[in-house]
Design goal:
Elements: H1 6-25, H2 47-65, H3 71-82, E1 91-93, E2 99-101, H4 106-111, H5 117-134, E3 140-144, H6 170-180, E4 184-186, H7 188-193, H8 209-222, H9 232-235, E5 236-241, H10 247-252, E6 261-265, E7 292-295, E8 301-307, E9 324-331, H11 344-350, E10 354-357
Parallel strand pairs: 3-4, 3-10, 8-9, 8-10
Antiparallel strand pairs: 1-2, 5-6, 7-9
Helix pairs in contact: 5-6
Length: about 400
């Protein structure tokens, strides 16, 4: 007599097969695996840095190429698309095939569906305290947050996004708060919306180089240095194919679905090579975001950019018309996806005449646990100045 009924035997066989397939997936190469290390070695790295990167690359390489970790998300997306079930996790497509990032609550943030008022207020407070601390140095502070693509490429958003329209966004709240604090702030959303498409790369989270230049020019105007702008007509060339796939396509493990192009800037580079600076001792944990400085002239203003991947490569080289002596760049957080935990001591040591704070929109808010190292944090229980006894 069988102890299990027939349907239970079939179900047991199915479950055993699934578990067996999962076990085999750890030794069977994923057909959609990239078979590339995430962080390539650089020639100037020492032995310790090479060992650190190798130890980080090894588990990431296994994750990327075994266990069907590349194929399963593609299968999931294909099934949801076949069922006409919209999905924004982690990447979704717009009306014309442009890809958008769906994590870190980016769609909700850009539409105003989520407004983290406490975290936005903490960010505004941080910038206000920083400006007051730097005032004795004569430092001008300008805030310019590179927007999410969803905040700019409105024409390309999917149809379901039309239902997500709220009157106030975190970006709006931050601009209002900064202006109340007396901090110069630029609404880069409007600057880029007023420019022709494409403003962002089609398969990447980042803006293209023309948009980066337009944003830089807007910052120079806000800083009181309109003559430091770079004329787009003189440097923006025709779009050329990118040498690599965009980061969104790489995250999807899919072949290119559109031809990715970027504008080529014809700059007469005045900046020296990127070099370490003794004042900028704090480094982001990612090797690509080391704090650096570029020399321009023996005399002139000192500029420091607190930014991320949107500004790291290009902005320090754009001061071709600026009366500057050195331009420094440091990441605005300790980790790539972190917020508000940079080293303010580095800023003070650098003694900038102009400080540009340019953290990406989706990472600008300050959670309760995050605060810059060396920046005095206000006592939340303190009695406001001028309050009645």
């Amino acid at each position: 007599m069988n102890l299990l009924s027939r349907h239970r035997r079939y179900l047991g066989t199915l479950v055993a097969g699934i578990f067996g397939l999962l076990l085999l997936s750890n030794v069977i190469p994923d057909p959609l695996g990239g078979w590339k290390v995430r962080t390539p070695m650089e020639a100037d790295w020492g032995l310790l840095k090479r060992v650190q990167v190798m130890l980080r690359n090894a588990p990431a390489f296994v994750n990327d190429n075994f266990g069907f970790r590349a194929s399963l998300p593609v299968l999931r997306r294909t099934l949801r698309e076949a069922l006409a079930s919209p999905d924004s996790y982690p990447i979704y497509a717009g009306r014309d095939g442009q890809l958008f990032w769906g994590l870190e609550r980016t769609p909700e943030q850009s539409s105003g569906a989520v407004v983290r008022s406490v975290e936005v207020a903490r960010f505004v407070t941080m910038i206000g305290v920083m400006q007051r601390q730097l005032q004795p140095l004569g430092t001008k502070v300008v805030v310019a947050l590179p927007p999410n693509a969803q905040s700019v490429e409105l024409e390309a958003l999917p149809a379901w996004n039309d239902l997500l329209r709220y009157p106030t966004t975190e970006y709006d709240a931050a601009l209002a708060g900064l202006r109340a604090e007396g901090v110069s702030a630029v609404d880069l959303r409007q600057v880029l919306r007023d420019s022709p498409r494409p403003r962002y790369l089609l398969t990447d989270t980042h803006w293209n180089e023309r948009s980066s230049l337009l944003a830089f020019n807007a910052v120079m105007v806000a800083a009181g240095h309109a003559d430091w702008q770079v004329n787009p007509a003189g440097v923006v060339g025709l779009p050329v194919p990118m040498g690599r796939r965009g980061d969104l396509l790489r995250a999807m493990r899919m072949p290119p679905e559109v031809k990715e192009e970027n504008f080529k800037l014809r700059l007469k580079d005045r900046a020296g090579d990127a070099r370490p600076d003794p004042a900028l001792t704090h480094h982001n944990t990612h090797p690509a975001f080391r704090s650096v400085a570029r020399d321009y002239a023996a005399t002139g203003a000192r500029v420091l950019i607190l930014g991320d991947s949107f500004s790291a490569g290009l902005w320090p080289r754009l001061f071709v018309n600026g009366d500057v002596s050195v331009v420094g760049w440091m990441h605005a957080s300790h980790t790539v996806t972190g917020t508000c935990d940079f080293n303010f001591d580095d800023v003070v040591r650098f003694k900038p005449d102009l400080l540009i704070y340019a953290r990406t929109e989706r990472f600008f808010v300050c959670p309760p646990h995050a605060w810059p190292v060396g920046l005095p944090e206000p006592d939340p229980n303190a009695v406001p100045a001028g309050a009645a006894p």
